[in-house]
Structure to design on (188 residues):
């Protein structure tokens, strides 16, 4: 194998790291910051028709007021399952049912709850960092394999630096998003 034959697919690595960032953004959106948001229900999965189903696929999610989210469940038989899933989701919201409409009043966040949500945000960020590092490891493994197949040490160092730069850029983005989210959570 000549040195020119090896091409690391950095676009693939970047796409996979982007996936970790997208997942982090979704998880951050589910953390409530004292204001009602339809996206806070996105991670909630309801046991419906024998399988786990996202809550937004069993009803309509609305935000009629700044401190209220409603879920209008289409199938009356799923109201209890939806209420149970929301209660067990860890959002810290107590659902109130009125027929097929589940109302979710968003209480003010106290200092203890803000700290707890901040810790949850930090956990989400750490999961994203681990996912990004796993992608980095895959890239480094490809480079090591190519080194074994005859790649020069200079080329190996060049590719390793490129993968590390990509990793550093994404880890920095995770840290920036975490800082922003923790700022939102702690804001009174």
């Amino acid at each position: 194998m000549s040195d020119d034959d090896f091409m690391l697919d950095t676009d693939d690595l970047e796409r996979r790291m982007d996936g970790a960032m997208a997942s982090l953004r979704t998880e951050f959106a589910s953390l409530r910051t004292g204001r009602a948001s339809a996206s806070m229900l996105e991670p909630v999965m309801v046991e419906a028709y024998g399988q786990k189903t996202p809550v937004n696929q069993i009803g309509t999610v609305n935000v009629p007021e700044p401190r209220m989210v409603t879920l209008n469940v289409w199938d009356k038989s799923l109201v209890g399952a939806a209420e149970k899933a929301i209660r067990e989701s860890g959002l810290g919201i107590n659902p109130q049912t009125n027929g097929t409409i589940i109302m979710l009043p968003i209480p003010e966040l106290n200092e203890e709850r803000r700290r707890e949500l901040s810790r949850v945000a930090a956990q989400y960020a750490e999961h994203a960092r681990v996912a990004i590092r796993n992608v980095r490891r895959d890239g480094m493994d490809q480079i090591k394999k190519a080194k074994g197949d005859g790649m020069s040490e200079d080329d190996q160092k060049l590719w390793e630096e490129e993968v590390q730069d990509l990793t550093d850029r994404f880890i920095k983005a995770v840290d920036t998003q975490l800082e922003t989210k923790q700022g939102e959570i702690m804001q009174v």
Observations:
- The CA atoms of residues 1 and 86 lie 56 Å apart.
- The radius of gyration is 22 Å.
